[in-house]
Amino acid sequence: MIEGAISEPYVPFDEKGRVDYARLKDAMLALQERGVNEFMVNGIGGEALVLSIEERKKVLESALDVSKGEIAVVVTSYSIDTTLELIKHAKDVGASYAVITQPLIYPLKNPLEYFKKIASKSQLPLILYNEKQLGNILTPTQVVSILKIDGFIGYKDSTKDIGHLQEVVDEMPEKSKLLAGSDSLIYTTYTLGGVGIVSLIINVFPRLIIELVESMKKGEYKKGLELQKKVNRVRSILKSYGFSAGYRYAAKLAGIDFGYTYERSEDLTEQEAQNLKQKLQKEGLI
C-alpha cells in the first residue's frame, strides 16, 4: 500500500501552456534525491484536470519512467467508460493503484452503484478520494459503504472536516488504509490511525513533510504537533498566491522546477515573488 510522505507532483507547463514532460521527470528525480519515493500523479491539486485524456496518460508514463517507488494515479472523469479506460492504461504501463474520485460536477442519486460498477471491472486496487473541491462530497455513511466494496483498499480524505473523518474511521473496514488529503491535517490523520499524506508542500520542502511523518510514525507527538503548526504556516503562505503559482515559485527557489502555471496570467508578479521569498526566509526555509 502506498503510504508515508507521498508527493502529488504539479504538472509542469512551458511558456505556451504545453505539458513539459521532461521537466516533470527532472522534478521527480529532484524529489527522489531529497527522500521522496512515493507519488500520486494526475491529482487535482497537481492541476491534471486541465489535461486531455492522452496527456494524462503521458504524464503517468513519464512519472513511471523515473519513479523508484510505487505510483498511484488519480482517475477523475464524468463517465465510467473513461474511468475504466484510464485504469486499464495505468495497469498496462505499471501503476500500482487507481485513485477514484466522485464524478465531476454531476450529483449521483446512488453513488454506491457508480463505484460498484467501476470496482467490478477495475484491473487495479482502488483508493477512494473524497475531494471537497469537486462538490458532491460523499457523506461518512457513503464513504464507509464504498470502502466495503471488493477492490477498495484505502481512503484519501480531502474534506478537511475532522468530524467527517472521525465518523469514517469509526466504521471503515479494518483492511482500509487512511491517507490525509490535506497538509493541514497530517497530525490529526495520523492520530486517527492514518498511514500517509498526499502532499503538495512536499513538492517544495520535502524534508519538512518527511520529518513530520516520521515523527508521527515514531509516536513523537509533541514534535509532530510543532511541525504541523509550521506546515500550516507555510501552507497559508503558499496558498495566498493562488492555486499553484506560489508553490511553483517556492519550489524553484528550493531547486525543484515545476515550470509555469497552465494560465500564465496566474504566475507571480515580481513584487509577489519578492514578498513570498521574504516570508519563506522568515520561516528559515530558504
Question: What attributes characterize this protein structure?
Answer:
286 residues; alpha/beta; TIM Barrel; 8-stranded parallel barrel; 11 helices
Structural description of this entry:
The structure is a single chain. With 286 residues, the protein is of the alpha/beta class. It has a single domain (4-282), classed as Alpha-Beta Barrel (TIM Barrel). It is 45% helix and 14% strand. The protein contains 11 helices and 8 strands. The chain has helices spanning 21-33, 53-66, 80-93, 111-121, 140-147, 162-171, 186-191, 206-217, 221-239, 245-253, 270-282; strands at 4-7, 38-41, 71-75, 97-101, 126-131, 152-158, 177-180, 196-199. The chain has an 8-stranded parallel β-barrel, surrounded by 4 helices. Helix 2 runs parallel beside helix 3 and helix 5 packs parallel to helix 6 (162-171). The longest helix has 19 residues, at 221-239. The protein is globular.
